[in-house]
Amino acid sequence: MKGIKYIAIAAALAAAVGGTAFAGGGADGGKQKETKLTYVYWGSTAEDVAIKAALKDFMAANPGIKVEGLYLPGDLDGSTYNAKMKSMAASGTLPDVGYFRPEEFGNYAEKDFFLQLDDLMKRDGMDTSYLAQTWLSIGGKTYGAYTAAECQVMFYNKKVLQDAGVPLPPAKFDAGWKWDEFAANLRKITVDKNGKHPGEAGFDPKNITRYGVAYDLWSAMYYPTLWSNGGGVISDDGKSVMVDSPESIEAVQRLADLINKDHTMPYMGGGSGLPAPSVMLANGQLGFWVTGQWALLEVGGIKDLPFGFAALPIQKKPAQIYLSGVNVVFKQTKHPEEAWMLQKWMMDPSKTLNLYTSGLWMPTKLAYYNDPAKLTEWTNNPVHPAGYKEAVLDSMAISKNEPIKIRNINQIWGDYLNPAFESIWIGKSSAADALKDAAAKVRASGLLVGTY
């Protein structure tokens, strides 16, 4: 990778001096007391195993500190996790350190739930040794860090494509299939129980045995599709709606047509009866899966799966998102220095290399992109096959940060946008009708009040 300047993008914020550096450890009558920390996190069962291993290694290196992992799987849009955090905050039982939902970060930071990190970062030389967008600030003060560098990716099963007579897709992020070519190839892959394809006489959309693609359908995963067509959701200043623009409507309708018109994409909502996309990909029931980079942890661990990475389909221009959960130290911790030690550990690939070689995360530390030896250290393995760099790492050159600093963004999605998108996916409403209606409600809601 040539220089990290091409991955350090719009979310770089100036870190103002603040916070407090704390004395570590603790002794009582000359006897070392064991410090107990709780580390909260979410993720798949595979991520649960990976995080537990990292915490175990931390405790082995720091025998005076015991860490209890608090695993909260939650759902993809975070409502379960956010409800748990709200309950813990109200009862004064928040953990010491760990993951936090990005869409609620500004709200909680502004209300002083997190430890300010500026002095600690500078003291330990971390303020300039990480990607610029890693550190998250509110009001000029740093309260958290992105857990990892993540983005949207498109996996494919090579054998499925070959069997369908579809050429392997381009890997280079800016040379991906145009949308019409993508849609046409999905029709070639999709087949019903009688061997018929969409558009052929006698095709049975109720008895499909192999689908072209599955998209993860939740808020952050919509952005690259919208941006690729020149659309968006809310303006960068948080004061106007873009989701009902012609570009946004067109992009969403194209995606919906894969489900309800072409029948090349399954709707994976409740009651679908279908296996998870990773299982369908492995079983030859699916050609492509569009999801988050973190799913590489799961896909890369499937034995004998001939998978590859494709460039995301392009509508008007290539697009990519930079997103991740946030890592924070909760201000109420009784052990701020030890909690900070744990956060540093989880951010340092030299301590937690398996989190990167396994495919779960991409690093936030600069050296693991700029130093060829360190880049090789986490990417030179079967989990990161040929095409990974061109399709995934190189695409970060054009990535935009998930707009988590828009005030009330979580409520806007939860109350208005998610129901609208759901009605589109199930074929109840057209993209134009649903998004225009939702946008009007957002404008009338009083929630468009800028950014943190």
Main attributes of the structure:
five-stranded mixed sheet, six-stranded mixed sheet, 452 residues, D-Maltodextrin-Binding Protein, domain 2, 17 helices, 15 strands, 15% strand, globular, alpha/beta
Mean pLDDT: 92
Strand order of the largest sheet: 4-3-5-14-7-6
Termini, distance in Å? 33 Å
Examine the coordinates and then state which fold CATH places here, giving the name of the CATH topology of the largest domain.
D-Maltodextrin-Binding Protein, domain 2
The Cα radius of gyration reads: 23 Å
The class by helix and strand makeup works out as alpha/beta
Q: State the total count of DSSP E strands.
A: 15
Shape: globular
CATH architecture level-2 label of the largest domain: 3-Layer(aba) Sandwich
Per DSSP, what share of the residues sits in E-state strands of 2 or more residues?
A: 15-25%
Supply the number of structural domains. 2
> Please, what is the CATH homologous superfamily of the largest domain?
Periplasmic binding protein-like II
> Helix proportion of residues, in percent?
25-40%
Low-confidence stretches: 1-29
CATH class type of the largest domain:
Alpha Beta
- Number of distinct helices: 17
Largest sheet: 6 strands, mixed
